[in-house]
Every structure is written in C-alpha cells, then in structure tokens.
Amino acid sequence: MLYPLTFETIFKDKIWGGQKIKTILDKDFSPLPNCGETWEVSDVEGNVSVVKEGSLQGKSLHELVEQYKDKLVGGHVYAKYGNRFPLLIKFIDANDDLSIQVHPNDELAKKRGSGFGKTEMWYIIEADKGAKLNSGFNREVTKEEYVKAVADNTIQDILNIEPAQPGDVFFLPAGRVHYIGKGLLLAEIQQTSDTTYRIYDFDRVDATTGQKRELHTDLAVDAIDYHHYDQYKTLYDKKLNESVNAVTSDYFVTNVLNFNQEVEHDYTHIDSFVVLICVAGALTVEAEGGHSISLKMGQCVLIPASINNVTLVPDGDMTVLETYVP
User: Fold this and answer.
1) pLDDT per residue over 296-308, tens digit each?
2) 178 among annotated binding-site residues
3) From the CB of residue 224, how many other CB atoms can be counted at a distance below 10 Å?
4) Where are the domains of the chain?
5) What phi and psi values does residue 321 have, to the nearest 5 degrees?
6) 84, 139, 198, 213: the active-site residue
7) pTM of the prediction?
8) Could you give the CA distance from residue 261 to residue 288 in angstroms, rounded to a whole number?
9) Is 62 annotated as a binding residue?
10) Quick check: 172 pLDDT over 90?
11) Do the first three CATH levels of 10-234 and 242-324 match, i.e. the same topology?
12) Phi/psi zone of residue 316: left (φ > 0), alpha (ψ -120 to 50 degrees), beta?
C-alpha cells in the first residue's frame, strides 16, 4: 500500500558549494566538505532516490514507478512518461557563482540522445546581502553576437542580472542562459534531466585536478533562446493562508503555501503525484489512512496520486512549495 514517501538525501560535492546545507538546512550528516547540492527526489540514472521510512524502505523511486505505475504518479503522467519519474527536486547552496550555462529543450535533447530537456524553476530560501543571479539576456542578441561574446570573453556584458531575495521565484524554460550567483540558497524543481551545457566557468581551476572544468560552448549555441524578455522574475501574490500559484508550465505546476493555520487539500482533480517541499518553518502532513509525516525546512515528501486528501498542520509560520505535473 502506498503512503507519503520520504527519501534518503543524495549529497553532491561542488567546486562552488559551501556550508549552508548543514548550517541552514540542518543536514549535518552530509559527508562532503563543500556540499553544493542535495537531490531530494530523483530518478536520474545513477542517482535514484531510495525510500527512507515505512514498509517500502530501501526501495528505489524507479522500482516504485515500475511497480505502482499510475497509482504512484497519476494516469496522465504515466501515459506520458512511463516508468521514468518526471521531476527532480534539489536544494542548492551557491558559496560561489555557478557556471554560466544553458539546458536543451526536449526536442534537442532527444535529437542528441540525452533523454528529456531541462526546464526548471528556483525558489530563493536565503540570500546574502547583495546576492544576484542571471536569467537570460539584457537585450536582443543574435547567434553571431553571442558566439563573438563567448570568444572574446565578454559574455557577462550581455547577461541580464537580477537581485535575489528570499521568496523570489525564477522560472527558467529550457534554452534560457542562466547562473546562480554567490550567496544564494534555493530550492530547484526541474525536469528529470542532468544535461547541462557549460558556457563559461569564470576561469576556475579544480583544486583536486588542477584543471579547468569542461565547457560545452559548441553544444550550447543551438540550445539557446536569444530573445530578450521584459520580465525574468516570476511575479506572484504572497498571501497568508492561501495557496498561490507561482509557476504553470507543461512540465510542472508549483504553488506557494504560506500558512500558520491548518489546511486541508483535496488532490482528486489533478491525477498526479504531489511533492511538498518545506522551505521555511515546520509542519506535519497528515494523509488518509492514518499516515503522518513531520517536515522541516529542507525536507520533502512525495504524496502518491492514489492519496487524494492531506491535511497540513503548521508549527507556527511555514512555507511549502506544492508541485505536480499538470
């Protein structure tokens, strides 16, 4: 029988990683000196999440999708994605700027034999004073102008730089050039893909190998959306005790829940699993069948599609991201 599922955290050491996974998200069991990412719900090959608790403990997420199919992920989700769980949930601690990068869309990824593309979103949890990030270009850019900027090392001159504060949301469709800036701790929701084309890495040298990290400038050229957009930050209404939609895309819907009182949610109509990601405070998730899960900041729970009703019981003020496949 399915129940709300929590998973063992997968830790990722990164050249730009820091200590906030431990100090702010309280994941002090990280074995890594510079933990840049944790993967909380993942079906990426070689990094598949394993159930942490309950009767399914030790089972992989991939095994569960194969076994329970639409009961776990929802009918329309299983019809589209089959045995591949479609979303990857991460926390990211940028102790330094990440590389300037871009991800392919589905069409290009499949053409190149790398599965699905990568559309993603960020929710800023913590931001050092003056922290910034890049989303897109600061003007219309031609492919030729872009190639020249990469070649003569002026790529940063054409990037759109945004200040970032806790609670900010940025939606990044595949093809949008981006990087996470130093001093940001965030939650990332994305398609199940680990395909990244690194454009520029600030001339960093890996302390272990003494080498610069590989760039993928040729692969990036045909993946990029060169248009300029008026608004890069995702605007949404920050309301208390209401579920507020922040992102609706072909790949995921994400709502922001700021609550300090008990709330019941009926998921009958969505025909999808739901992942609840706690990004502030703490709460208890009570599900039909008498199941109860405690969550605090930095923790997630996967609600199977077969569970229609949950009650969120906050411990004071809490903020949760609620995401599912439309």
Assistant:
1) 999 999 999 999 9
2) yes
3) 21
4) 10-234, 242-324
5) -95, 135
6) 198
7) 0.96
8) 19
9) no
10) yes
11) yes
12) left
d(C-alpha 313, C-alpha 316), whole Å: 9
| Per-residue pLDDT band at 111 (split at 50, 70, 90) | very high
Q: Are 164 and 132 in contact (CB under 8 A)?
A: yes
Rounded Cα–Cα distance for residues 238 and 279 (Å): 14
CATH number corresponding to 10-234 = 2.60.120.10
Catalytic annotation present for 213: no
Domain 242-324 is classified in which CATH homologous superfamily? Jelly Rolls (2.60.120.10)
